[in-house]
Amino acid sequence: MADEADITGLLRRFQAGDEEARSRLMETVYGELKQIAGRYMRRERGDHTLQTTALVNEAYMKLTHARGGAWQDRAHFFAVAARIMRQILVDHARQHVAGKRGGGVQMLPLNEALVFAPEESGQMIQLDEALSRLASEDERVGQIVELRFFGGLSVDETAEVLKIAKRTVEREWSFGRAWLRTELGHSAAPQ
């Protein structure tokens, strides 16, 4: 991972209008964003595929247009990135549910390719709604679940991004998964 101070400095310069910092920032974080998306995609079932590059490119575009978002630091930037990736997946799931046609699998455009099985689209929406409820009850647990499940970060990476102890991440990740299992039932909750 890139040095936290470097990313935070680039974020501040980018927000001040420095276009060179914008370019360097994206060069610096693009690989990490691709790793996060790749880890997330590796955990998906074989009949649900989103090309990692397509997810990263869509998130990249949204992040570069969010200069007014005033990222505080590296942790905040990656939390926003994870949230954007989650929203991309949820938006496409909602499009699929709203436009059910044909049998089984439907292709949805997202730069390169996105395929949703119908039963997974509904689960993605349910998971998003449940995660929003969880975050309203305990924001940090919601962030941990979002970073771990949607962002694909490891326990160590999540602890680094949120600047909390690894043990806290492990404990709150367990709580968040249990909470979601209760809300969603066993099959739809993060593993």
What is the rounded Rg? Answer: 17 Å
Q: What order do the helices and strands follow?
A: HHHHEEHHHH
State the helicity in percent bands: 55-70%
Strand portion:
under 5%
Largest sheet: 2 strands, antiparallel
| pLDDT < 50 stretches | 101-118
| Count of DSSP-assigned helices | 8
Distance between the termini: 25 Å
- Summed over residues and divided by their number, the pLDDT gives a mean of 75
Whole-number tally of structural domains: 1
The tally of beta strands, per DSSP, is 2
**Global geometry:** globular
Side-by-side strand order of the widest sheet: 1-2
User: What structural category arises from helix and sheet content?
Assistant: mainly alpha
